[in-house]
Structures are given as C-alpha cells and as structure tokens.
Amino acid sequence: QVQLQASGPGLVKPSQTLSLTCSVSGASITSGPYYWSWFRQPAGKGLEWLGRVYTSGSTNYSPSLKSRISMSVDMSRNQLSLDLSSVTAADTAVYYCATGVGWQLPLKPEDNWGQGVLVTVSS
Amino acid sequence: DIQLTQSPSSLSASVGDRVTISCRASQGIGNYLAWFQQKPGKTPKYLIFSASTLQSGVPLRFSGSGSGTDFTLTITNLQPEDFVTYYCQQYEHYPLTFGQGTRLEMK
Questions:
Q1: Most C-beta atoms within 10 A of its C-beta, which of A41, A45, A68, B81?
Q2: pLDDT tens per residue, range B68-86
Q3: Cβ separation of B100 and A46 shorter than 8 Å?
Q4: Sheet holding B62-67, edge to edge
C-alpha cells in the first residue's frame, strides 16, 4: 500500500516561496503507472487542485497558479516537491499530496491521499 | 475552466433517509465525474468514479448517476457516519475542478 506524507514549514511569510515535500513509501515514485497531484483546502472551504506530476517529470498545472507553481519528483529521495512562489494570505490552506494509478485517459482521480499539512502565510 | 455547481449547499436529513445531491457541469464532461466524501479534519475519501462506479469498499447505499452535464449522488438508508461533506470533481479536462461541496446535516 502506497503511503504519502506531506511536510514543510507551517508558517511562510508573504511574498516568500512555500516549499513542501511529499514522502512516498510502498512504491517507487518513478513507477510507470503512478501519477501525483497536490491539492489544497483553505479552512472551512472547498478543495482546489493545484497540479499533477508524472513519473516522466512532466506536469500539468492549474492555470490560476501557473506563473507561481513548480512541481517535481526527486527519484533519489522518493519524494515529490511543491514550490509556490510569491505567496499571500490567500495561499493559507491545508495542502495534500495524492496519487493515482493507471494509464487510461483521462486519468482517474487520485484515490490515495496523504494527511494534509497546514501552511499559514503570515508575517 | 469547467465549473461544477452542487446543490443544495447543505441538506438536513435523518438516519434512515434517502438523499440526493446534484452536481451540474458548465459544459459536457461525458461520465468523467467523481464523488468524494470528507469528514471534518480528515482527508477526502474517493467514493465514486465514472459517475456511477463505486470504489472498492464503499457501501452499496451510495450510488451515482448521470452523464454530460447533470449528475447525482444518492445515499439511501443514511447512517450516522454519512453526515459529512460531499464534493463532486470533474476529471475530463484540466484544470481538474471541484464543486463547492454539500454539507449533509442530521435533522
């Protein structure tokens, strides 16, 4: 069973870069059929998809974040990473990493979510 | 972006009731719609994909239907643990988008 654990600083200052990692156990991050997404959820609000990264390293990002977001896979550490630059208070949320498996398009929603990590943007 | 509108935003019901939650897409998405359940403070749980296919382990009192732009999640014989929040998600087009959520409350 693949397990995911997101981690990172709980507090980020406005205008700085939010950097999170997602440690993966139970599978190789470069295993072909897996794909990996980040989501977030502000307190009391709904879910937002941020982007998806594939084992090849290619990505799809939410257009609303495209100029600020970067996602990658670190094969040596079996981790995903998320960088979100120029953060504001609107980026305060619980951030989740998640994974799905399969090749058929369109890819099914990620069915395995890690525990979220709360990130607060504040000076 | 494809907008998903869920209705109602909140719903009151009793244990044993049958409820339906609607999800309408701003354009056709075939049957590429999923439903998630989220308990307070917990990770979302994936219930249904392809509009009507239950994920393994999901109780049979949950069912989904619809295609194109109109979709429904139905829960029969409500159990106490079902009184949480539900989201629809479309996955035909990037960006993946969610409905705003429906909170199911105990009457």
A1: A41
A2: 999 999 999 999 999 999 9
A3: yes
A4: B4-7, B19-25, B70-75, B62-67
The answer, for B102 touching chain A at a CB cutoff of 8 Å, is no
- Token pair for A4: 């995911």
Q: Positive or negative CA dihedral for B24, B30, B31, B35?
A: negative
User: In 10 A of CB A4, how many CB atoms?
Assistant: 23
The pair of structure tokens assigned to B71 is: 């979709």
- In 3D, which of A111, A69, A95 has the Cα closest to residue A5? A95
CA proximity to B61, closest of B77, B84, B85, B37 = B77
Asked if B44 is an interface residue toward chain A (Cβ–Cβ < 8 A), one would say yes
Chain B residues with CB under 8 Å of A96 CB are: 43-44
Residue B104's Cβ-count burial label (10 Å; 0-12, 13-18, 19+) is buried
